[in-house]
Amino acid sequence: MLNSSSPLPAVHFNSVFSFFLYRCPANPAQPATGWDADFMDVSNDLLFDLIGAANFLDIRPLLDLTCKTLAAHIRGKTTEELQQHFNIKCDLSAAEVEELRINSPWNTDIS
What we know:
single chain, mainly alpha
């Protein structure tokens, strides 16, 4: 029985469950070539919802797949590319960015 004070993650379950209904194979025990890539060809919003749902429901294979997909989105991108890809606004002032550049000379990718 669920405790009424248990926090639930902010997951859009309608989009997640409709995603599963339309995308899951008839026989999930049989891996299909390229299935993972096709299955995970989703928007960032849905990807984050899937990660949250897989974590909350403790579906380890789906959590691994979604995190692997997220890592592939991140790999090899510069700070600016990541900010654009994930719609992240830099909230640092110009002085704070300059201070980071001075204090972190090894990081050439500070924006």
